[in-house]
Protein backbone atom coordinates (compact mmCIF):
# COMPACT_ATOMS: atom_id res chain seq x y z
CA UNK A 1 0.00 0.00 0.00
CA UNK A 2 1.32 3.44 -0.99
CA UNK A 3 0.07 6.05 1.47
CA UNK A 4 0.73 8.85 -1.01
CA UNK A 5 -1.92 7.48 -3.35
CA UNK A 6 -5.46 8.84 -3.23
CA UNK A 7 -8.01 6.09 -2.63
CA UNK A 8 -11.75 6.04 -3.23
CA UNK A 9 -14.65 3.77 -2.29
CA UNK A 10 -18.37 3.67 -1.68
CA UNK A 11 -18.70 4.10 2.10
CA UNK A 12 -22.37 3.17 2.54
CA UNK A 13 -24.36 0.02 1.93
CA UNK A 14 -26.03 0.08 -1.48
CA UNK A 15 -29.59 -1.27 -1.52
CA UNK A 16 -31.55 -0.91 -4.79
CA UNK A 17 -34.54 1.46 -4.44
CA UNK A 18 -34.07 1.69 -0.65
CA UNK A 19 -31.02 3.80 0.17
CA UNK A 20 -31.81 7.50 0.45
CA UNK A 21 -28.15 8.60 0.64
CA UNK A 22 -24.97 7.06 -0.73
CA UNK A 23 -21.50 8.28 0.23
CA UNK A 24 -18.37 8.07 -1.90
CA UNK A 25 -15.21 8.72 0.13
CA UNK A 26 -11.80 9.91 -1.05
CA UNK A 27 -8.61 10.03 1.02
CA UNK A 28 -5.16 11.21 -0.01
CA UNK A 29 -3.22 14.22 -1.22
CA UNK A 30 -5.29 14.55 -4.43
CA UNK A 31 -8.70 14.21 -2.75
CA UNK A 32 -9.46 17.95 -2.69
CA UNK A 33 -8.24 18.48 -6.25
CA UNK A 34 -10.39 15.63 -7.59
CA UNK A 35 -13.42 17.01 -5.72
CA UNK A 36 -12.87 20.48 -7.15
CA UNK A 37 -12.72 19.01 -10.65
CA UNK A 38 -15.97 17.09 -10.29
CA UNK A 39 -18.07 19.23 -7.95
CA UNK A 40 -19.52 22.64 -8.72
CA UNK A 41 -20.85 24.44 -5.66
CA UNK A 42 -23.92 26.60 -6.19
CA UNK A 43 -23.66 30.34 -5.58
CA UNK A 44 -20.67 31.75 -3.75
CA UNK A 45 -20.09 29.01 -1.17
CA UNK A 46 -16.57 28.90 0.28
CA UNK A 47 -14.46 25.74 0.09
CA UNK A 48 -13.57 25.38 3.77
CA UNK A 49 -12.60 22.33 5.78
CA UNK A 50 -15.49 20.65 7.61
CA UNK A 51 -18.06 22.85 5.89
CA UNK A 52 -20.77 21.16 3.83
CA UNK A 53 -21.23 22.43 0.27
CA UNK A 54 -24.32 22.04 -1.89
CA UNK A 55 -24.08 21.69 -5.63
CA UNK A 56 -23.80 19.32 -8.59
CA UNK A 57 -21.37 16.64 -9.69
CA UNK A 58 -20.41 17.15 -13.35
CA UNK A 59 -18.62 14.99 -15.86
CA UNK A 60 -15.33 16.90 -16.41
CA UNK A 61 -15.34 16.42 -20.22
CA UNK A 62 -19.00 16.47 -21.26
CA UNK A 63 -20.03 18.73 -18.37
CA UNK A 64 -23.18 16.61 -18.01
CA UNK A 65 -24.71 16.66 -14.54
CA UNK A 66 -24.23 13.29 -12.85
CA UNK A 67 -25.98 14.01 -9.54
CA UNK A 68 -27.20 16.72 -7.19
CA UNK A 69 -25.17 16.25 -4.02
CA UNK A 70 -23.56 17.56 -0.87
CA UNK A 71 -19.79 17.69 -0.48
CA UNK A 72 -17.87 17.51 2.79
CA UNK A 73 -14.14 18.33 2.58
CA UNK A 74 -11.98 17.53 5.62
CA UNK A 75 -8.42 18.83 5.56
CA UNK A 76 -5.53 16.93 7.12
CA UNK A 77 -5.03 16.18 9.97
CA UNK A 78 -8.64 16.67 11.13
CA UNK A 79 -10.07 13.66 9.33
CA UNK A 80 -10.64 9.94 9.82
CA UNK A 81 -7.36 9.01 8.13
CA UNK A 82 -5.44 12.19 9.12
CA UNK A 83 -5.12 12.79 5.36
CA UNK A 84 -7.20 15.10 3.18
CA UNK A 85 -10.62 13.42 2.99
CA UNK A 86 -13.63 14.26 0.84
CA UNK A 87 -17.09 12.74 0.98
CA UNK A 88 -19.65 13.02 -1.81
CA UNK A 89 -23.14 12.63 -0.29
CA UNK A 90 -25.14 11.48 -3.31
CA UNK A 91 -28.63 10.14 -3.87
CA UNK A 92 -28.85 6.54 -2.75
CA UNK A 93 -29.21 3.47 -4.90
CA UNK A 94 -26.80 1.75 -7.23
CA UNK A 95 -26.31 4.04 -10.23
CA UNK A 96 -25.52 7.51 -8.73
CA UNK A 97 -22.78 6.36 -6.35
CA UNK A 98 -21.22 4.02 -8.90
CA UNK A 99 -21.09 6.82 -11.46
CA UNK A 100 -19.45 9.18 -8.95
CA UNK A 101 -16.96 6.51 -7.90
CA UNK A 102 -16.06 5.85 -11.53
CA UNK A 103 -15.44 9.57 -12.12
CA UNK A 104 -13.13 9.67 -9.08
CA UNK A 105 -11.16 6.71 -10.44
CA UNK A 106 -10.91 8.35 -13.86
CA UNK A 107 -9.42 11.44 -12.20
CA UNK A 108 -6.55 9.44 -10.71
CA UNK A 109 -7.87 7.89 -7.52
CA UNK A 110 -7.39 4.19 -6.87
CA UNK A 111 -10.11 1.86 -5.60
CA UNK A 112 -9.51 1.32 -1.90
CA UNK A 113 -8.67 -2.11 -0.59
CA UNK A 114 -10.77 -3.66 2.22
CA UNK A 115 -10.20 -1.67 5.42
CA UNK A 116 -7.69 0.68 3.80
CA UNK A 117 -9.22 3.87 5.21
CA UNK A 118 -8.96 2.47 8.74
CA UNK A 119 -5.49 1.06 8.03
CA UNK A 120 -4.34 4.57 7.06
CA UNK A 121 -5.89 5.92 10.26
CA UNK A 122 -3.82 3.35 12.19
CA UNK A 123 -0.58 3.98 10.28
CA UNK A 124 -1.01 7.74 10.70
CA UNK A 125 -1.40 7.40 14.46
CA UNK A 126 -5.06 8.33 14.78
CA UNK A 127 -6.06 4.88 16.05
CA UNK A 128 -4.26 2.02 17.74
CA UNK A 129 -4.89 -1.54 16.58
CA UNK A 130 -7.51 -2.35 19.24
CA UNK A 131 -9.50 0.72 18.22
CA UNK A 132 -9.24 -0.20 14.54
CA UNK A 133 -10.54 -3.71 15.26
CA UNK A 134 -13.34 -2.22 17.37
CA UNK A 135 -14.54 -0.23 14.36
CA UNK A 136 -14.97 -3.42 12.38
CA UNK A 137 -16.75 -5.04 15.32
CA UNK A 138 -19.03 -2.02 15.72
CA UNK A 139 -20.06 -2.21 12.06
CA UNK A 140 -20.82 -5.93 12.43
CA UNK A 141 -22.48 -5.76 15.87
CA UNK A 142 -25.58 -7.95 16.09
CA UNK A 143 -26.89 -6.72 19.44
CA UNK A 144 -26.84 -3.55 21.57
CA UNK A 145 -24.45 -5.25 23.99
CA UNK A 146 -22.02 -6.13 21.19
CA UNK A 147 -22.20 -2.52 20.05
CA UNK A 148 -21.38 -1.27 23.56
CA UNK A 149 -18.38 -3.60 23.82
CA UNK A 150 -17.11 -2.38 20.44
CA UNK A 151 -17.56 1.24 21.52
CA UNK A 152 -15.59 0.51 24.71
CA UNK A 153 -12.72 -0.76 22.58
CA UNK A 154 -12.96 2.27 20.32
CA UNK A 155 -12.69 4.51 23.40
CA UNK A 156 -9.43 2.79 24.39
CA UNK A 157 -10.72 0.80 27.37
CA UNK A 158 -8.77 -2.26 26.21
CA UNK A 159 -5.68 -0.46 24.95
CA UNK A 160 -5.15 1.45 28.21
CA UNK A 161 -4.63 -1.58 30.52
CA UNK A 162 -2.58 -3.37 27.87
CA UNK A 163 -0.25 -0.39 27.58
CA UNK A 164 0.10 -0.20 31.36
CA UNK A 165 0.99 -3.89 31.53
CA UNK A 166 3.53 -3.50 28.76
CA UNK A 167 5.01 -0.46 30.50
CA UNK A 168 5.40 -2.45 33.73
CA UNK A 169 7.15 -5.26 31.85
CA UNK A 170 9.46 -2.75 30.18
CA UNK A 171 10.34 -1.31 33.61
CA UNK A 172 11.13 -4.78 34.93
CA UNK A 173 13.26 -5.54 31.86
CA UNK A 174 15.16 -2.27 32.31
CA UNK A 175 15.87 -3.12 35.96
CA UNK A 176 17.12 -6.59 35.05
CA UNK A 177 19.27 -5.46 32.12
CA UNK A 178 20.78 -2.67 34.21
CA UNK A 179 22.02 -5.28 36.70
CA UNK A 180 23.47 -7.32 33.85
CA UNK A 181 25.35 -4.38 32.34
CA UNK A 182 26.26 -2.43 35.50
CA UNK A 183 26.24 -5.04 38.23
CA UNK A 184 29.08 -3.42 40.20
CA UNK A 185 27.61 0.10 40.11
CA UNK A 186 24.03 -0.66 41.26
CA UNK A 187 22.48 -2.13 44.39
CA UNK A 188 21.31 -5.77 44.20
CA UNK A 189 18.10 -6.45 42.33
CA UNK A 190 15.01 -6.49 44.57
CA UNK A 191 13.72 -9.90 43.53
CA UNK A 192 10.71 -9.76 45.87
CA UNK A 193 9.56 -6.56 44.20
CA UNK A 194 10.03 -8.12 40.75
CA UNK A 195 8.05 -11.20 41.81
CA UNK A 196 5.22 -9.04 43.13
CA UNK A 197 5.05 -6.98 39.94
CA UNK A 198 5.12 -10.09 37.75
CA UNK A 199 2.33 -11.70 39.78
CA UNK A 200 0.22 -8.56 39.43
CA UNK A 201 0.78 -8.37 35.66
CA UNK A 202 0.03 -12.07 35.26
CA UNK A 203 -3.22 -11.77 37.22
CA UNK A 204 -4.37 -8.82 35.11
CA UNK A 205 -3.50 -10.68 31.91
CA UNK A 206 -5.53 -13.66 33.16
CA UNK A 207 -8.49 -11.39 33.97
CA UNK A 208 -8.42 -9.86 30.49
CA UNK A 209 -8.20 -13.31 28.90
CA UNK A 210 -11.33 -14.32 30.80
CA UNK A 211 -13.36 -11.90 28.65
CA UNK A 212 -12.58 -13.81 25.45
CA UNK A 213 -15.41 -16.36 25.60
CA UNK A 214 -18.05 -13.76 26.39
CA UNK A 215 -16.68 -11.49 23.69
CA UNK A 216 -16.83 -14.30 21.14
CA UNK A 217 -20.46 -15.00 22.06
CA UNK A 218 -21.34 -11.33 21.65
CA UNK A 219 -19.61 -11.06 18.28
CA UNK A 220 -20.55 -14.32 16.58
CA UNK A 221 -23.62 -15.32 18.55
CA UNK A 222 -25.07 -18.76 19.21
CA UNK A 223 -26.52 -21.19 16.70
CA UNK A 224 -29.44 -23.13 18.20
CA UNK A 225 -31.20 -25.99 16.40
CA UNK A 226 -34.71 -27.14 17.35
CA UNK A 227 -34.84 -30.84 16.50
CA UNK A 228 -37.28 -33.67 17.09
CA UNK A 229 -39.68 -36.00 15.36
CA UNK A 230 -42.57 -34.55 13.36
CA UNK A 231 -45.54 -32.80 14.99
CA UNK A 232 -44.04 -32.25 18.46
CA UNK A 233 -44.37 -28.46 18.21
CA UNK A 234 -40.98 -27.35 16.89
CA UNK A 235 -42.44 -24.74 14.55
CA UNK A 236 -44.87 -23.54 17.23
CA UNK A 237 -41.89 -23.11 19.55
CA UNK A 238 -40.03 -21.03 16.96
CA UNK A 239 -43.09 -18.85 16.34
CA UNK A 240 -43.69 -18.30 20.07
CA UNK A 241 -40.03 -17.53 20.69
CA UNK A 242 -39.64 -15.12 17.78
CA UNK A 243 -43.11 -13.63 18.39
CA UNK A 244 -44.05 -13.95 14.74
CA UNK A 245 -45.26 -16.64 12.35
CA UNK A 246 -41.88 -17.62 10.96
CA UNK A 247 -42.87 -21.22 10.35
CA UNK A 248 -46.05 -22.86 9.02
CA UNK A 249 -47.89 -24.79 11.73
CA UNK A 250 -50.42 -27.56 11.01
CA UNK A 251 -51.52 -30.81 12.61
CA UNK A 252 -49.99 -32.72 9.70
CA UNK A 253 -46.64 -34.39 10.39
CA UNK A 254 -43.89 -33.32 7.98
CA UNK A 255 -45.22 -29.80 7.34
CA UNK A 256 -41.74 -28.29 7.76
CA UNK A 257 -39.69 -29.45 4.78
CA UNK A 258 -36.61 -27.24 5.17
CA UNK A 259 -34.64 -25.38 7.83
CA UNK A 260 -36.37 -22.13 8.89
CA UNK A 261 -34.20 -19.46 10.53
CA UNK A 262 -34.94 -16.65 12.97
CA UNK A 263 -32.57 -14.12 14.55
CA UNK A 264 -33.12 -13.38 18.26
CA UNK A 265 -31.32 -11.76 21.19
CA UNK A 266 -31.11 -13.75 24.43
CA UNK A 267 -29.43 -12.10 27.41
CA UNK A 268 -27.52 -9.82 25.06
CA UNK A 269 -26.32 -12.73 22.90
CA UNK A 270 -27.31 -12.90 19.21
CA UNK A 271 -29.02 -16.24 18.64
CA UNK A 272 -29.67 -17.85 15.28
CA UNK A 273 -32.55 -20.28 15.80
CA UNK A 274 -33.01 -23.08 13.28
CA UNK A 275 -36.38 -24.83 13.11
CA UNK A 276 -35.65 -28.11 11.39
CA UNK A 277 -37.80 -30.63 9.58
CA UNK A 278 -39.11 -33.47 11.72
CA UNK A 279 -36.59 -36.30 11.75
CA UNK A 280 -38.12 -39.60 10.65
CA UNK A 281 -37.78 -42.26 8.00
CA UNK A 282 -39.78 -41.26 4.93
CA UNK A 283 -40.21 -42.18 1.28
CA UNK A 284 -41.13 -38.62 0.29
CA UNK A 285 -38.15 -37.29 -1.69
CA UNK A 286 -38.56 -33.65 -0.64
CA UNK A 287 -39.11 -34.51 3.01
CA UNK A 288 -36.10 -36.83 2.92
CA UNK A 289 -33.91 -33.91 1.81
CA UNK A 290 -35.35 -31.81 4.66
CA UNK A 291 -34.55 -34.54 7.19
CA UNK A 292 -30.95 -34.71 5.92
CA UNK A 293 -30.63 -30.93 6.28
CA UNK A 294 -32.03 -31.20 9.81
CA UNK A 295 -29.32 -33.66 10.74
CA UNK A 296 -26.66 -31.37 9.25
CA UNK A 297 -28.03 -28.36 11.14
CA UNK A 298 -27.94 -30.34 14.38
CA UNK A 299 -24.30 -31.28 13.84
CA UNK A 300 -23.31 -27.64 13.20
CA UNK A 301 -25.32 -26.09 16.04
CA UNK A 302 -23.80 -24.81 19.28
CA UNK A 303 -26.88 -25.93 21.23
CA UNK A 304 -29.62 -28.49 20.56
CA UNK A 305 -33.23 -28.08 21.69
CA UNK A 306 -34.50 -31.67 21.55
CA UNK A 307 -38.27 -31.30 21.51
CA UNK A 308 -40.77 -33.99 22.48
CA UNK A 309 -44.44 -33.80 23.36
CA UNK A 310 -45.73 -34.68 26.81
CA UNK A 311 -48.69 -36.65 25.46
CA UNK A 312 -46.58 -39.19 23.55
CA UNK A 313 -43.76 -39.19 26.10
CA UNK A 314 -40.28 -40.45 25.31
CA UNK A 315 -40.67 -42.63 22.22
CA UNK A 316 -38.33 -44.93 20.35
CA UNK A 317 -38.02 -42.25 17.65
CA UNK A 318 -37.06 -39.66 20.29
CA UNK A 319 -34.36 -41.97 21.62
CA UNK A 320 -32.94 -42.52 18.13
CA UNK A 321 -32.72 -38.75 17.57
CA UNK A 322 -31.16 -38.30 21.01
CA UNK A 323 -28.42 -40.81 20.15
CA UNK A 324 -27.52 -38.63 17.13
CA UNK A 325 -27.27 -35.33 19.05
CA UNK A 326 -26.37 -36.22 22.63
CA UNK A 327 -22.72 -35.31 22.10
CA UNK A 328 -23.76 -31.65 21.64
CA UNK A 329 -24.83 -29.25 24.44
CA UNK A 330 -28.51 -30.12 24.77
CA UNK A 331 -31.75 -28.96 26.39
CA UNK A 332 -34.79 -31.23 26.47
CA UNK A 333 -38.03 -29.39 25.65
CA UNK A 334 -41.16 -31.16 26.90
CA UNK A 335 -43.87 -29.44 24.90
CA UNK A 336 -47.67 -29.60 25.07
CA UNK A 337 -47.63 -29.96 28.85
CA UNK A 338 -51.26 -28.81 28.92
CA UNK A 339 -52.23 -32.14 27.33
CA UNK A 340 -50.40 -34.51 29.69
CA UNK A 341 -48.45 -34.63 32.95
CA UNK A 342 -44.79 -33.98 32.05
CA UNK A 343 -43.55 -35.69 35.23
CA UNK A 344 -44.52 -39.03 33.72
CA UNK A 345 -42.19 -38.60 30.76
CA UNK A 346 -39.40 -41.15 31.17
CA UNK A 347 -36.42 -39.42 29.51
CA UNK A 348 -32.74 -40.45 29.97
CA UNK A 349 -31.42 -39.51 33.41
CA UNK A 350 -28.20 -38.01 32.03
CA UNK A 351 -30.12 -35.09 30.49
CA UNK A 352 -29.56 -32.24 32.93
CA UNK A 353 -31.43 -29.32 31.37
CA UNK A 354 -35.19 -29.69 30.91
CA UNK A 355 -37.78 -27.04 30.06
CA UNK A 356 -41.55 -27.48 30.01
CA UNK A 357 -43.45 -25.46 27.42
CA UNK A 358 -46.85 -24.93 25.87
CA UNK A 359 -45.58 -23.43 22.64
CA UNK A 360 -49.04 -22.94 21.14
CA UNK A 361 -49.83 -20.59 24.05
CA UNK A 362 -46.31 -19.03 24.20
CA UNK A 363 -45.76 -20.42 27.70
CA UNK A 364 -42.31 -21.41 28.98
CA UNK A 365 -40.27 -19.12 26.69
CA UNK A 366 -38.74 -17.14 29.59
CA UNK A 367 -37.76 -20.41 31.29
CA UNK A 368 -36.19 -21.58 28.04
CA UNK A 369 -34.05 -18.45 27.71
CA UNK A 370 -32.89 -18.71 31.33
CA UNK A 371 -31.88 -22.35 30.87
CA UNK A 372 -30.04 -21.49 27.64
CA UNK A 373 -27.94 -18.92 29.50
CA UNK A 374 -27.35 -21.44 32.27
CA UNK A 375 -26.38 -24.15 29.78
CA UNK A 376 -23.77 -22.01 28.06
CA UNK A 377 -22.59 -20.84 31.49
CA UNK A 378 -22.87 -17.10 30.97
CA UNK A 379 -24.78 -14.35 32.71
CA UNK A 380 -26.61 -11.57 30.93
CA UNK A 381 -24.04 -9.60 28.99
CA UNK A 382 -24.59 -5.91 29.58
CA UNK A 383 -22.24 -2.94 29.61
CA UNK A 384 -22.30 -3.13 33.42
CA UNK A 385 -21.01 -6.72 33.39
CA UNK A 386 -18.30 -6.29 30.79
CA UNK A 387 -16.25 -3.14 30.17
CA UNK A 388 -14.50 -4.68 27.17
CA UNK A 389 -13.95 -8.07 25.58
CA UNK A 390 -10.99 -9.29 23.57
CA UNK A 391 -11.35 -10.99 20.20
CA UNK A 392 -9.76 -14.23 18.99
CA UNK A 393 -6.59 -12.60 17.67
CA UNK A 394 -6.06 -10.64 20.85
CA UNK A 395 -6.73 -13.74 22.96
CA UNK A 396 -4.12 -15.76 21.04
CA UNK A 397 -1.48 -13.06 21.45
CA UNK A 398 -2.35 -12.47 25.10
CA UNK A 399 -2.10 -16.21 25.77
CA UNK A 400 1.47 -16.09 24.46
CA UNK A 401 2.20 -13.18 26.81
CA UNK A 402 0.75 -15.16 29.72
CA UNK A 403 2.88 -18.22 28.95
CA UNK A 404 6.00 -16.06 28.71
CA UNK A 405 5.30 -14.37 32.04
CA UNK A 406 4.74 -17.75 33.67
CA UNK A 407 8.08 -18.89 32.23
CA UNK A 408 9.78 -15.83 33.76
CA UNK A 409 8.36 -16.81 37.14
CA UNK A 410 9.65 -20.35 36.68
CA UNK A 411 13.06 -19.02 35.65
CA UNK A 412 13.25 -16.95 38.85
CA UNK A 413 12.13 -19.94 40.91
CA UNK A 414 14.86 -22.06 39.37
CA UNK A 415 17.41 -19.33 40.26
CA UNK A 416 18.71 -19.08 36.70
CA UNK A 417 20.97 -16.15 35.69
CA UNK A 418 19.40 -12.77 34.88
CA UNK A 419 20.09 -13.21 31.17
CA UNK A 420 17.46 -15.96 31.09
CA UNK A 421 14.88 -13.63 32.65
CA UNK A 422 15.14 -11.21 29.74
CA UNK A 423 14.34 -13.80 27.04
CA UNK A 424 10.73 -14.41 28.07
CA UNK A 425 10.24 -10.85 29.26
CA UNK A 426 10.98 -9.64 25.75
CA UNK A 427 8.51 -12.13 24.26
CA UNK A 428 5.80 -10.93 26.69
CA UNK A 429 6.52 -7.29 25.82
CA UNK A 430 6.39 -8.06 22.09
CA UNK A 431 3.09 -9.92 22.49
CA UNK A 432 1.49 -7.07 24.43
CA UNK A 433 2.73 -4.63 21.81
CA UNK A 434 1.17 -6.72 19.06
CA UNK A 435 -2.26 -6.26 20.63
CA UNK A 436 -2.15 -2.46 20.42
CA UNK A 437 -0.05 -2.33 17.24
CA UNK A 438 3.11 -0.96 18.85
CA UNK A 439 4.98 -4.07 17.72
CA UNK A 440 3.18 -5.74 14.82
CA UNK A 441 4.21 -7.20 11.47
CA UNK A 442 2.88 -6.20 8.07
CA UNK A 443 1.43 -9.69 7.53
CA UNK A 444 -0.62 -9.39 10.71
CA UNK A 445 -1.95 -6.00 9.57
CA UNK A 446 -2.92 -7.44 6.18
CA UNK A 447 -4.78 -10.29 7.85
CA UNK A 448 -6.67 -7.97 10.19
CA UNK A 449 -7.73 -5.32 7.70
CA UNK A 450 -8.62 -7.77 4.93
CA UNK A 451 -11.73 -8.62 6.98
CA UNK A 452 -13.02 -5.04 6.77
CA UNK A 453 -15.50 -3.85 4.17
CA UNK A 454 -14.16 -1.88 1.19
CA UNK A 455 -15.44 1.53 2.28
CA UNK A 456 -14.06 1.29 5.82
Give structural notes.
There is one protein chain. The protein is of the alpha/beta class. It has helices at 31-38, 95-106, 116-123, 129-139, 144-154, 159-181, 191-209, 212-220, 234-242, 285-300, 316-325, 365-375, 392-413, 418-436, 442-449; strands at 7-10, 21-27, 39-41, 53-58, 65-74, 85-91, 110-111, 222-227, 260-266, 269-275, 303-309, 330-335, 354-356. β4 (53-58) and β5 form a beta hairpin. α4 (129-139) runs antiparallel to α5, α6 (159-181) runs antiparallel to α7 (191-209) and α13 (392-413) runs antiparallel to α14 (418-436). The radius of gyration is 29 Å and the shape is flat. The chain starts with 6 loop residues before the first strand and ends in a 7-residue tail after the last helix.
Summarize the SSE layout with pairings.
Blueprint: E1 7-10, E2 21-27, H1 31-38, E3 39-41, E4 53-58, E5 65-74, E6 85-91, H2 95-106, E7 110-111, H3 116-123, H4 129-139, H5 144-154, H6 159-181, H7 191-209, H8 212-220, E8 222-227, H9 234-242, E9 260-266, E10 269-275, H10 285-300, E11 303-309, H11 316-325, E12 330-335, E13 354-356, H12 365-375, H13 392-413, H14 418-436, H15 442-449
Parallel strand pairs: 1-7, 8-10, 8-11, 11-12, 12-13
Antiparallel strand pairs: 1-2, 2-6, 3-4, 4-5, 5-6, 9-10
Amino acid sequence: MLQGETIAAIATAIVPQQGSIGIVRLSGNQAIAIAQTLFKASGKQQWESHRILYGYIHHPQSHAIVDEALLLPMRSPRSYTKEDVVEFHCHGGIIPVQQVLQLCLEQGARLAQPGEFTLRAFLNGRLDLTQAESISELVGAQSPQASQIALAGLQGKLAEPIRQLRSTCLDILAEVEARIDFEDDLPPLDQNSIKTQLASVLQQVTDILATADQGELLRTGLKVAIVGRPNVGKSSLLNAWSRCDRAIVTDLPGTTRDVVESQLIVGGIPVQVLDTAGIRETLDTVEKIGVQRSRQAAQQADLILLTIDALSGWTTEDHEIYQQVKHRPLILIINKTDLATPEKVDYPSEIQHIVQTIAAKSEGIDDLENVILETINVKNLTAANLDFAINQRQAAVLTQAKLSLEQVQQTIKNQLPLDFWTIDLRIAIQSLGEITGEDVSESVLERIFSRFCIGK
